Amino acid sequence: MADGPLIVQSDKTLLLEVDHPDAEAARRAIAPFAELERAPEHVHTYRLTPLGLWNARAAGHDAEQVVNALITYSRYAVPHALLVDVTETMDRYGRLTLEKDGDQLILRSTDLPVLEEVLRHKRIQPLLGARLDDSTVLVHPSERGQLKQQLLKIGWPAEDRAGYVNGEAHPISLVQDGWALRPYQQQAVDGFWFGGSGVVVLPCGAGKTLVGTGAMARAGATTLILVTNTVAARQWRDELLQRTSLTEDEIGEYSGARKEIRPVTIATYQVLTTRRKGVYTHLDLLDARDWGLIIYDEVHLLPAPIFRMTADLQARRRLGLTATLVREDGREADVFSLIGPKRFDAPWKDIEAQGYIAPADCVEVRVTLPDAERMTYAMAEPEDRYRLASTSTSKNRIVEALVEKHAGEPTLVIGQYLDQLDVLAERLNAELITGQTTVAVRQKLFHQFRTGEIGLLVVSKVANFSIDLPEATIAIQISGTFGSRQEEAQRLGRILRPKVDGRTAHFYSVVARDTVDADFAAHRQRFLAEQGYSYRIMDAGDLLTPPTPA
Predict the structure, then answer these.
(1) What does DSSP say about strands 474-477 and 431-433: parallel, antiparallel, or unpaired?
(2) Which is the most buried residue in 153, 430, 519, 539, by most CB within 10 A?
């Protein structure tokens, strides 16, 4: 393309001109393999990384498609060295394969020098057994996950073709009474099943739970479902009872409150990572049954200890569900090697265009701190500045104005700091939900919100994930977890369920101008910018000042 929207640079950065007429088509073409780094107003910066290219390869994209996308949309000639590098990087995936040979697990290579290099690596050597022939090495089954981790770290990701144990059979069928899996949900189930394990990435509100139930029906086996909290566990249970042939007696909850192990068991991450005297007391759950399928809900939040446990679960089929594979701890590679590569990824805007999620208007409302607060902020220690900026009292008036502007529409006010939320709940005369709110009260309030009995909730970060509030239309974010991209995606996701009347959802982020709050906000928005969402900037003064009559 002579005048394309993309500038491809030799340092593997891609610059996308947002205002170009072909920018949207280019963004969709590069989304499967490029990661967004910065998203200012006019030019977005993407980067090519080995992990991004290997994820694309595992999802069925080859080097030819990647090269073609870069050449098609590039304004200038694409550096030849970069094209060669892309091809060679993607070619690294699959040179080593893990396979079953009878009862034995083996590492096989089509490239002898690569195998020799691997065999001499000091961290990999202890994980391998006897050399069987020139191209094959014995692997102990317990080292399957650990080996994949280490191979990825040295740049030779192994393709796992060793298959999976079927586990204990348990018939599960979908009860499609007036509904059916959407086309993209069926594609996600098929993609996962073909690969055997891996991650499905879908926007919040696009029915990730239904992909999980579809995979369970396909497996027809005992299933362990790992979720973020007890409320999420109860929502999974309700969904399974409604959508599948499972009965109440077949579904168990394994949490702080209950310890039930049944053919389908829903456990919280928290209970699995509980330690007493240095010992994980509930790990027996992983061996309690011959699980045929393990589902990791919100896999981007998977706690680090569970990664190590997962290394011992490599023979089980594993499905990770998430809205974004972004991890703030940078452990995306661990998700890739231990849960599996990305098997299906549907761009948010594509699903919006199909009418399966609501269109969203994203607005950043910029507030100027009062002089006294500015001075306090300027004199504060660096570690205190974010809290001071985030909890500025000047934000309260803005929230009140936004709630008034959207009076009568189901609204969520979301924040990080409990004292700030206490004040707002009192000023707005609204119910408050935090981590201290009991599960029973949370469920009751969420039910009242869903039925329209109450139209406003103030919520802490407990509402970031796994909360089903389909009619929520307005979200007002006043503070967050520093620059967390996945939190931003989760919070927008709270209002993306399609509305009965087809209304647009509105997502407001109230940000203190000229502070670290604004810097973190820019970082938080990166993932959503990658998905095609753009934030309008609005000055708080315009919101508080009534419009002048024409």
Answers:
(1) unpaired
(2) 430
More confident residue, 225 or 274: 225
Q: At what angle are helices 516-524 and 382-390 packed, to 10 degrees?
A: 80
Q: Is 137 helix (H, G, I), strand (E, B) or coil?
A: strand
- The Cβ of residue 87 has, within 10 Å, a number of other Cβ atoms equal to 15
Fold (topology level) of 354-544: Rossmann fold (3.40.50)
304, HSE (Cβ side, Cα atoms, 13 Å)? 5
Lowest mean pLDDT among 62-76, 383-397, 453-467: 453-467
What's the farthest any 2 CA atoms get from each other in the chain?
85
CATH architecture of 96-160: 2-Layer Sandwich (3.30)
Tallying the residues shown for the chain, one arrives at 550
Which residue, 289, 354, 319, 315, is CA-closest to 214? 319
Please give the model's pTM, rounded to 2 decimal places: 0.81
Pairwise CA distance, residues 64 & 84, whole Å: 11
How do the domains of the chain map onto residue ranges?
A: 6-92, 96-160, 183-346, 354-544
Interatomic CA distance for residues 164 and 223, integer angstroms: 14
Q: What value does the mean pLDDT take over residues 312-338?
A: 80
Alpha carbons 80 and 102: distance in angstroms, whole number: 45
The torsion angle over the Cα atoms of residues 374, 380, 382 and 386, rounded to 10 degrees, is -50
Give the pLDDT score at 550: 47
Beta-bridge mates of residue 169 = 221
At the second CATH level, the architecture of 183-346 is: 3-Layer(aba) Sandwich (3.40)
At residue 88, what is the residue type?
E
Token digits for 396? Answer: 């309260």
Residues 157-175 have a mean pLDDT of: 90
pLDDT in tens, 362-416: 999 999 999 999 999 999 998 899 899 999 999 999 999 999 999 989 999 999 8
Cα gap 174→299, rounded to integer Å: 24
What stretch of H or E contains 308? helix 304-310
